[in-house]
Amino acid sequence: MAVSTLKEIVDRAFAEKYGVPAINVVNDLTMEAVLAGAVEARSPVIVQTSVKTVKSIGSDVLFAMWSAMTAGIDVPVALHLDHCPDRDVITECLERGWNSVLFDASTLPVEENQRQTIEVVRQARTFGAHVEGEIESITGVEDGVGSDTEAARQSLAVSLRFLEATGVDVFAPAIGNAHGVYKREPVLDFQRVSDLVAAHPIPIALHGGSGMTDAQFTDLIARGCAKVNISTALKITYMKSNLSFLTDAQARDKWDPPSLFAKVRTDIVNLTRGLAEQFGSAGKA
């Protein structure tokens, strides 16, 4: 229990065919609420930080928050650096104590991406940490990383060469998914997940999860998507919860910050618990 590793968490989920919520937090309140929601659901959870959050709060402060909030926690949790193209930030987070990183070199030619990913995997291993790999950009911009232009998908053969050469622990393929809010139901390449897993059994990370249907989640998790990234849904819940409370506070001319924090916390806890139930990870801790 307690602070675990990305590999331990997703390997079990992959074997037992459930998905683990991997939720991007933006501050101390959301980090604590996500952890509390996981405890309530008796679910493992992966707490993710974007490069933007690392730079705005600071890696020392973020890791101090994490250490304090996970002391004595009795469900498996891991701290993960999401979509990071910056090797210096990866080094900084690994040195501070992050459990895993997503090295996002998807804008580079596959050969260079592969070369650098091998280096990142080797580096991470010296810290007992794990690596998520990616060779295609997931459509959409998230916290300043990414592009709204859909990237070309690599062949199965190219993907397999990357996996075998790098030894990454989790793989994030593009399957028609996108970061941000879907304006229409996405058309997803379910078979690509099955083909990858059949050829090279590895936990798949599903990005752009906010807004997918229950049926899509269920299908993709059954095919091997053991890590389900949630960022936009957290941000929307956080912002709308604040907005709702503050609109009411203004109407009543009553201003009580602790009550605001409690309201937002409750909504984030409920979001986390609901995701664990939806993905099948509730009760797995």
From TrEMBL:
Dihydroxyacetone phosphate binds at G180, G208, G209, S210, N229, I230, S231, T232. It comes from the Bacteria. The active site is at D82. Pfam families: F_bP_aldolase. Zn(2+) 2 binds at D104, E134. Its cofactor is Zn(2+). Binds 2 Zn(2+) ions per subunit. One is catalytic and the other provides a structural contribution. Zn(2+) 1 binds at H83, H179, H207. GO terms for molecular function: aldehyde-lyase activity; zinc ion binding. This is Ketose-bisphosphate aldolase. It comes from Cryobacterium zongtaii.
